[in-house]
Specification:
Blueprint lengths: L12 H47 L5 H55 L19 H12 L3 H14 L4 H20 L2 H5 L17 H12 L3 H9 L1 H10 L11 H21 L10
Helix pairs in contact: 3-4, 4-5, 5-7, 5-10, 7-8, 9-10
Length: 292
């Protein structure tokens, strides 16, 4: 009887680790380059706004030789900038297309790796896989749209909270938690403005020196009674108030010194994100309109 070959002898784990580390280094270096480019592009946006603002003001001035000369100069400068940015736009478009086309490969590989890794760790907690959040029909994008319906800027802040995990190569968790904390406070202030909460049975006057302060728990209770028509859902949301406040406290890690643990920050963000989504789904009709 022929012995079965030992497949382990044909594969050197060191080869895999060398490949993985090289790939990781290449990806992280490219990310850092793209982030720097994005920051520089952000400055170009700001500079263009300033350029436009000042020349628009000049163009509204009564016609004089000096105004005519300034406008002529603005046209010449503007054409140079437009031509230069045409090159930037073409190259950026190609880079964006290349990255977008690569995302499904990396997402599929990461999902398969999660499945494989979890299969070797039976009895231990499974790690959850995070799908690409920025796909057109992803849950993040859909809730971003719904939050924009509540407040014109809220959806953008919500999207930025998720984006911070990927756009900041240095301490991304801190930026993400800071943004998500803004989402939480903005969301419940939109549902429960100070003046309305103070006129409700869910508010109590506070001791000096801040007698008119509105606490987050009061906003939550007001929001549940004001906007959630389903009595069962309302009860569940109210019963989970302390869980909600504890999840919010996890966002306070953004104030801690030192580099934040990425996985812990991602977990804290996901917990609050789930709470926000739970509330959005519970409120019907959406969006809520004060005075309606």
């Amino acid at each position: 009887m022929t012995d079965q070959p030992d497949h382990r002898s044909t594969v050197d784990p060191a080869d895999l680790m060398e490949l993985v580390r090289a790939l990781q280094s290449e990806v992280e270096t490219s990310h850092e380059q793209q982030v720097r480019a994005s920051q520089e592009l952000g400055y170009i946006v700001q500079a263009t706004r300033e350029f436009a603002t000042h020349y628009e003001a000049v163009s509204r001035q009564p016609s004089t030789p000096d105004v005519t000369k300034a406008i002529r100069g603005g046209l010449a400068i503007g054409k140079v900038l437009q031509n230069r940015f045409g090159l930037v736009r073409a190259q950026a478009h190609l880079a964006a297309e290349a990255v977008a086309s690569a995302v499904p490969y990396f997402a599929t590989a990461a999902a398969a790796a999660h499945t494989m890794g979890n299969s070797f760790s039976i009895g231990s907690p499974c790690r959850t896989f995070t799908p690409p959040p920025f796909a057109p029909m992803s849950a993040m994008e859909l809730y971003s749209v719904r939050l924009t319906q509540l407040d014109s800027t809220l959806g953008r802040v919500y999207r930025d909270a998720h984006g911070a995990l990927y756009a900041h190569p240095d301490d991304p968790g801190r930026a993400a938690l800071w943004q998500m904390r803004q989402v939480f406070d903005h969301f419940f202030q939109a549902l429960a403005p100070d003046d309305l909460v103070r006129r409700s049975e869910h508010w109590v006057r506070k001791p000096d020196p801040t007698p008119l302060q509105v606490h987050r728990e009061e906003r939550i209770r007001y929001s549940a009674h004001r906007w959630v028509n389903d009595a069962g859902l309302r009860s569940l949301l109210l019963e989970s108030t302390q869980e909600t406040l504890r999840a919010y406290q996890r966002l306070q890690q953004a104030h801690e010194r030192g580099l934040l643990d990425y996985d812990a920050a991602q977990s804290a963000l996901a917990a609050v994100d789930e709470i926000i989504r739970r509330w959005v789904d519970a409120i019907s009709p959406w969006p809520p309109v004060h005075g309606a």
